[in-house]
Amino acid sequence: MTHRVGFRCDAGVASGVGHLMRCVALAEELCGRGAEVLFLGDVAESAWAESQLRQRAFPLCPAPSEPRALAELVGVLGLDAVVLDSYVLAPGTGAALRAAGTAVLAIVDGDPLGQEADLYLDQNLGAELRPFPHQPAAYGPWGGRLAGARYVLLRDSVLLMRGTSRRRPARPEGPLVLCFFGGTDSAGVAPAWAGALRATGLPFRATVVSPVPFEVDGPITVIAPTDRLPGLMAEANLVITAAGSAVWELLHLGVPTALSWVADNQLIGYEALVGGELAAGLGPVPDAAAVGVLARLLADPAAREEYGRRGAGLIDGRGRERVADALLALL
Hints:
- The protein is of the alpha/beta class and 331 residues long.
- It has 2 domains: 4-154 and 316-328, Rossmann fold (3-Layer(aba) Sandwich); 159-311, 3-Layer(aba) Sandwich (Rossmann fold), CATH 3.40.50.
- It has 12 helices and 13 strands.
């Protein structure tokens, strides 16, 4: 029997693309098992996000915001399950889908925001150790909740990079730095962090990913969001980014990382990663303290590589297999 699974998520300038990319990773796994997938939502604000679905031939359908209307659409489409990944869905969305006989997986970051589901996924580091403020609606061999690093969702393009790191010792012109803040830089912070790199006064070469071009002096190249990001990660001596879903990709690849945060929901991951010394902490803004951290990392290859070493192996790349197992067991 071929199962049909829908993914209810959005992507855009304001919301970023992290929700979409982790759903894409799970969709790739399900497709590999013969399931049919369909995305329900709006990604019109981001040409790059649209291209991610188009390249994989994942259909995209506009989705109503009202829960009962969404449940009716899901019935018309013949979906067996729906994955919810959004902070702005009406709290009754999961309940309406379940009442219509559709299995629901909710991907959350800590608080499920009142969303009812048969199965919850929280892939944040240490999530399995934190109390869960919602009782799962159904129990299987996974207890209704998948939590922690064992369940991190990684895309095919990242998994293919494992073991192929092309990172080289820093050259006289300095270490190679990659700076990005999701597929849309929704907070518009890339220019400020490029300035922080310049403020260190140390040699480096940097690639900064930004959907909005900007001019900056020095050895910095600004590029648009790109499908080459996993390869750029693998080449970098240091990555500067926010504590979003891309962090798990960097940990899987063992790339030295310095973290900021641009949204409140990223603070949980930031504190866990920095507190566990798996990444360097820059704080929320590129102030003098952050410039000092960057200067230390640029000047000290051993300090950089220690962060990469600690992170490597934490994310084994099989999280999406485990999540797919649990989701398909509901059907």
